[in-house]
Each structure stands twice: as structure tokens, then as C-alpha cells.
TrEMBL record:
InterPro entries named in the record: MeTrfase_RsmB-F_NOP2_cat, MeTrfase_RsmB-F_NOP2_dom, RCMT, RsmB-like_ferredoxin, SAM-dependent_MTases_sf
Similarity-based family: Belongs to the class I-like SAM-binding methyltransferase superfamily. RsmB/NOP family.
Organism per entry: Roseovarius lutimaris
Residues the record lists as binding S-adenosyl-L-methionine: D248, D288
Active site residues per record: C341 (nucleophile)
Domain SAM-dependent MTase RsmB/NOP-type intervals: 135-388
Keyword presence, Transferase: yes
Gene Ontology BP term (one): RNA methylation
Sequence segments annotated as region (Disordered): 83-104
Protein name, UniProt field: 16S rRNA (Cytosine967-C5)-methyltransferase
Keywords: Methyltransferase, RNA-binding, S-adenosyl-L-methionine, Transferase
Amino acid sequence: MTPAARISAAIEVLDAILDGAHAEKALGGWARRSRFAGSKDRAALRDHVFGVLRCWRSYAALGGAGTGRGLMIGALRAQGSDPEEFFTGEGHAPEPLSAAERAAGSAPTGAARLDLPDWLWPLFEASLGDAAEDAALALRSRAPVMLRVNLRQGDPAQAIAHLANEGIVAQPHDIASTALHVTEGERKISGSACYNDGLVELQDGSSQAAMARLEIAPGARVMDYCAGGGGKVLALAARVEGAFFAHDTAPQRMKDLPVRAERAGVRVDIVETARLRDEGPFDLVLCDAPCSGSGTWRRTPEAKWALTPERLNELTSIQRQILQDAAPLVTPGGVLVYATCSLFADENQATISHFLNKNPEWEIIDETRFAISEAGDGFYISQLRKKS
Ligand SMILES: C[S@@+](CC[C@H](N)C(=O)[O-])C[C@H]1O[C@@H](n2cnc3c(N)ncnc32)[C@H](O)[C@@H]1O
């Protein structure tokens, strides 16, 4: 496909999203209808669509309309290209710009410049102060592809060499001793032997760094209380011999965990909610709570536009309840860990303050906020221990 034909396809997919389709579904639907497209075309289309999803408001302003066409015109103007070079009407190119389209479009201002819904900007400012604008702007770019080296199977130098043999270029990154930043061949990872044999896992740099902060003594009993796919417990189990457990109120979210654990060469026992008390107590209970995900919106830009104040309130209630429910599972002298990939104080520091107010026998022993960076998403982690 020509670059202009790819833009036509992006317009079609963006219009489907505007009609209510999720981006993945709209992209999948387009791919099924367009058997002529190769993998490079599909990748380029995906890049267009996700690029627009991250920068929806500013591109709509620059393009003069929040339609598929307007957004792609805005995207081209944002990168300094002339839309008229692509909107020629020739072959599969989009129709030429009308006089109205040529005249439309203005520089975005306010929250539109930062590509945030209006109601979220005050929350960014209240949570991040001087760092708020940088965080919002960082969310307009692609996220890095990061790998975690599974130290049970090899070291970073070996992983880099093996990956290179499979056409994947990666460099160590000092965000974490296990972190590799992939700079070429990202799309080959899931099919590579390095990944399928468990030498590397896909894991964001901040998540790796946050897990590295947790002290785990050999033989410790560790519970990942909100395990989901199990990325966090796998990172912990790779570090030290111990007894590792996973729980989630939605057990189907853990369906891939046994396979991932086997691939990594570690053991993780899944615990049903009804058996939590019998299996406990645990030396460390990690609550990687459901959250707005605002620190990861580079990867999931649709969520930035879908979040509502009501949903945020609902999430903070769930987070508070999770900490309250998980605390009794911690052994005397053990550690309760609370983590989110949110940037918002309401989901982070305020949740911890609420817990400490209700449970004054606990205290914070460590609290770290990870800013969005070239190696990691926004992440928050707090460790609590009962006062002795
Ligand atoms: C942020 S995700 C966890 C991601 C996971 N730790 C990882 O690294 O891949 C939060 C998880 O918490 C689960 N969850 C929601 N409410 C819960 C509750 N009350 N108790 C335990 N888990 C809950 C969700 O089903 C979801 O899988």
C-alpha cells in the first residue's frame, strides 16, 4: 500500500472508532476486509491509529474536525507534512481537501494542547504539580518496549546476544538491573525462542524497578493479591527461592499464569478467594490494584478519553477495600505493598492516607513514584508494616 492508501485506511478505522468500535476491533475488522494488506501495512495503520488516539484533541484542532479525515489532516500537520501531498484522490488516496478543510484548523490550546479531557488537567496539576505538563505531554508519545531478563535462565548479556541472533536489538537500561530496552525487531519478540523459552518477559521498566524495591528473604511466602496476568509475581519469583501465590477476584485473568510460570521456570500457586485465610498468612502481600491506568495511557490511549469522574471514584473505593481486605493476610512483621500504574494522588497517596487513618497500627516504610520516562510508565508503590 502507498503511504496515502494507508492514510485512507486510517481514516476508515478512525471513523469506525468514532461510531463506537474499540480500536483493536476496528483494526481487526479492517484487516479481515483487506486481505491484500501485508504485515507492514497493518503495522503502519496501527501506528497511525494509535498515534491519533494519543493526540486526539490536538489533532482535531489542527485538522479542523474530529472526524477520521480531520484527525488525519491534523496528524499530518502536527508532523510538519502537507496533507495535500497525500490527499490527492489518486489511486487509493483520500479525496483532495475541500476549500473549507484547507481553511479549517487552528493551534490547540489549554487541555487540548496537552491532549487531555478538560476535567483531567486539574487532577494532573493537583497530583503532579510542576511535573504535570511533562507527564501529559509524555502520554502523547509511544511507550518503549521493555523486556525483563529472567535471571533464572540467564543474565542480561546472554539475553542481548540471544535476542540479537533472532533479529531483536536490545540494550540494558539502568531503570532496573533486569531491564532491556528493545530498539529494533519489537514485533519479533512474541515468536522468538528467547521469549518462548522464558529467558525474557515483556515488562515495563517502572514495574521492574518497583518490584526490585521489595525485599524478599529466601523461603518467604509471597502473595500477589491482585495477580491478573501475573507479571509482578513472576518478577518476584525469578529473584529468590520462596513460596509464591497468586489470587484475583476475576480468576480467568490468571489463566495464562501457569504457562508463563512454567516458561519462566518458577512455581506460582493459584489461591481461590475462599482459601485465602487457610493459605495465609504471608510475609509479603502485594496489592497491584485496579486503577485508572493513567501512567500507562501511552499504551492504552483509548482509556484516557474513556475515564469518567464516576469511574475514578469507583476505583478509589475498590482500592481502599482491597487494602483493608488484604491487610489481615500479612504475617506479624510482614509487609503490605500497595501499587498502581496511576499518576493520581487520589488513587495513590490518598488511598494510603485513608488506610493509615483507619489502621493507625500500620506505618509507611517506603513510598516511590515513578514518572513516565523513556524506559517506564508512571507507577506508584508504597510499603507498609505494622508498628512493633
Ligand atoms: C492492575 S491489575 C493487576 C496486574 C497484574 N498484577 C500484572 O502485573 O499483570 C488489577 C487486578 O486486580 C483484580 N481485582 C479487582 N478487584 C479485586 C479485588 N477486590 N481483590 C483482588 N483482585 C481484584 C482485577 O481483576 C485485575 O486483574
